[in-house]
Amino acid sequence: MASIILFGLFFLLLLIRVPIAISLAASSIVTLIITYDFSSVELVADILYTSVAKFTLLAIPFFIIAGVIMEYAGISKRLIHFADVCVGHWKSGIILVTVLTAIFFAAISGSGPATVAAIGGILIPALMKNGFKPESAAALLSSSGAIGIIIPPSIALIVFGVVAGDSINVSIGRLFIAGIIPGLLLGLSFIIAAMIVRRKDLKGILSAVKDSSIEISATREKASGKEIAKAFYDAIWGLLMPFIILGGIYGGVFTPTEAAVVAVFYGLVIGIFVYKELKFEDLKKIMIDSSVQTAVVMFIVSSASVFAYLITTEQIAQQISDALLGISSNKYIILLLINLILLIAGMFMDAISAFYIFVPILLPIMLVLEVDPTVFGMFMTVNLAIGLFTPPVGVNLYVACGIANTSINKISKAIIPFVVASIVVLLLITYIPSITTFLPDLLGVD
């Protein structure tokens, strides 16, 4: 009964477009009242507090602040310029520039929408100049930006580690390293898909676009060694940031949470004293932007925690687990079903909410099937990354649509090749666990 009320009300609220955090909280509170009584609502305050009062979760606001600082400090345009002088002269150089820059910035921001917003203003017009329709350019950037929640440091992987950590021992450091190869594979799949799309778009008429602040042309000459060296020198401080963060974590110098604080300090120093583009008056805007983003994330975390509490205490997770395992005894069929469930879930909810809802349900199944928790975390994160650029609630799509001045209907069609490409990678990650575990095992990260 509790499961019907909880999920029924939750999906009903989603259908009438109630914000997901409110949907989670409202459905949980109503279920508590109906299942127990009004006095049970007192539990909500305790759950809300304890869910966010965790040292590991402190990494989230600090990585958000670091990403905002890097955007204000001019890191994104330097990364784009460096990628451009390296591969921009190739026939499909603009595609490589877009995906490489998305990977670079993803390693800084840890967020999909933030990556699209930071580099889209330069790259979408550049893609349109190089033969892409507006909706195709927006589709490429939307999908590439999703790599932001896979490549370390990733806010999504931190949340997965926290949620799964309530049941088993999961290392966030191992998850970070595990995300590198899947993230690069996704980038490669998007490059291949974009080359096919561009060939089709070139048959049409190119749209006129405004100039971007950095010239990227299909006809640019190969950059000289001096130009490459200068671009590398300009971008080096941004490129070093992921190495400092990951090197410090795996060198035992600091924890992921402490690494986030180091990232903020590093970004401030580079922005103010090295690039000198970050002014002290910008700090107010940075704190406001990052506070709003943090508040949204933490509101979702706390609301989803109440939902997850009911899933556990009412044994809803066990019931669903038994039902799924009863469908088939074949491990590969069950994994396929789970991927389908997560793909559909990703179309309607953000990664953080999905982790709190589905990890308590699916983790016991993964343990029965003897799936490595790191592999589970990775293919679940890739599933939800795909959700960032699939309608109707793909956040990246809306950010890119605004930049490209195109409609959600047009981009929904243009995104199909990139969704297909990402699903191929998802299946590889699901059924070939070594893709995920190879790097952590090689480096001895537990």
Task: Give structural notes.
The protein is mainly α. The chain has helices at 2-15, 20-35, 42-52, 59-72, 75-87, 93-109, 112-129, 134-145, 155-164, 172-178, 180-201, 225-250, 256-274, 282-313, 316-327, 331-346, 351-368, 373-387, 395-404, 408-414, 416-431, 434-443.
Which characteristics define this entry?
446 residues, mainly alpha, 22 helices
Order of helices and strands: HHHHHHHHHHHHHHHHHHHHHH
Average pLDDT level:
84
SS content category: mainly alpha
What is the strand content? under 5%
**Rough shape?**
globular
Strand count, sense and closure of the main sheet? none
Compute the separation of the termini in Å: 41 Å
Q: How much helix is in the residues?
A: over 70%
Low-confidence stretches: 205-219
Radius of gyration: 22 Å
Specify the number of helices: 22
State the total count of DSSP E strands: 0
Q: What's the short version?
A:
This protein is mainly α and 446 residues long. Helix content is 75%, strand content 0%.
Secondary-structure map with pairings?
Blueprint: H1 2-15, H2 20-35, H3 42-52, H4 59-72, H5 75-87, H6 93-109, H7 112-129, H8 134-145, H9 155-164, H10 172-178, H11 180-201, H12 225-250, H13 256-274, H14 282-313, H15 316-327, H16 331-346, H17 351-368, H18 373-387, H19 395-404, H20 408-414, H21 416-431, H22 434-443
